[in-house]
Fold:
Amino acid sequence: MPNMTFVLFGATGDLAKRKLFPALYNLFLDGKMPTAVSIIGLGRTPYPNDEFQSKVEQALRDYSRRPVQTAGLQDFLNHFQYCTFDATSDESYQNLHELIQYRESALDIPENRLFYLSVAPQLVDVIASNLHSSGISQTKGWKRLIVEKPFGSDLKSAQQLNERLSTAFSEEEIYRIDHYLGKPMVQNLESLVFANPALGLLLDHSKIANVQITASETVGVESRASYYEHAGAIRDMVQNHLLQLVMMTALNLPEELTAKEIEIKKKEVITSLRPIEKETAYRDIVRGQYTAGEVLNTPVAGYKEEPGVNAASMTDTYFAARLHIDNQDWSGIPFYIRTGKRTDKKSTRIVIEFKSKVNDNNKLSPEGIAPNLLIVEISPNENISLRVNMKDPSTNRFIPTAINFSTTQEEQPEAYELLLFDAMTGNATFFAHWQEVELSWKWIQPIVEAFEENALPLHTYPAGSTGPDAANQLLQEDQFNWW
Ligand code: BG6
Structure:
């Protein structure tokens, strides 16, 4: 891996502490960091270097998936320098430029510069254009820009943001993070059928009844009301994570493809997504908001009672939808997606439900035979299982039983480790490309507008439940249930 400078905007923020420093440390433990790397953390509050390094160390102790080892720790921390920074001040960029050049020459690092923007959305284009005008991004080596979500708040703002970023960085240099694409099981999807021909046979489309994608959470809005009140589940989870999961699931690749080919296939999927109109969105979309309830045996407040939330808020904390992918592979097979905060459990999974035979043997099983399911658990557990029906000889009834294909014994790397490593090595396969982002916004824009105009009901659901009843009815209309 080439030696480089890693400039982190937002180094005193939550993401840096919880995810980025631990990810860098685990890469370091695995020997997956460049031999010479200068990591420059930027933030508004002034800190001496040693205090910043102590903060990094504390973050590792609090959040690293592997325990901090004394050996090598100081070497790791020595990579970090801090620079007080105001994104709108020319002087800040000048200071930063000098520090980058000073470290490059002290450590003999070529002008390869990776800029990670973990900052408020309104600062993203300001920083990118200042990096350009200050000369910091005009390097003799390569330059790359990693941008955190949200990428815009609607189609227009996303297009404007992209236009501004493109004046300073080319599409190949922009790495838009969607951390769901960094989850190891999501990265597996692309090669699942290729590596497992038997699964390919199973995934014969004429035998699939529907596909369900769930990303449920037990946490509520936490301390993020000021952001979430404007975002809602639709912008926070659906436009990015869930639509990316739809694209990755629908890829269904029989052969190993290059990064570019995967990008093209993903684009084909999102282009084939049948549009949902604002006026008729209520037919295929369910939005919900949690009320007070009990999550994991603890009483919790309703969304409207959360700190910072408007008591009359119409923000969606739950979203479910019926989608149709009108291409040759998936035509006639509905995709159902859902996500919600304060539900009964934390689980991200993809379930493929197979068609059942007509229930003609109810002598054996009065309840009918449960459908076969292929379940891909993405997090918090990683697992693939097949649900089959086994006959219980004592009652002569069929009982659904899961066969596990894979259980992860060893702890897997975290999404940010994989994504940071890819960005450092210049592999953009698991980042969101502009056309995917734009097409996702295009598809979801009428629904965003329907929400803003309250053109469809806001259902409530008690915290700790699986979501509003309306989401169950959505599937029951098609004679299905959520799994
Ligand atoms: C983030 C959202 O992108 O993803 C959060 O902003 C959400 O609201 C989180 O909690 C869920 O991620 P994960 O990896 O815990 O499923």
The CA atoms of residues 83 and 99 lie 8 Å apart. The first strand starts at residue 4 and ends at 9.
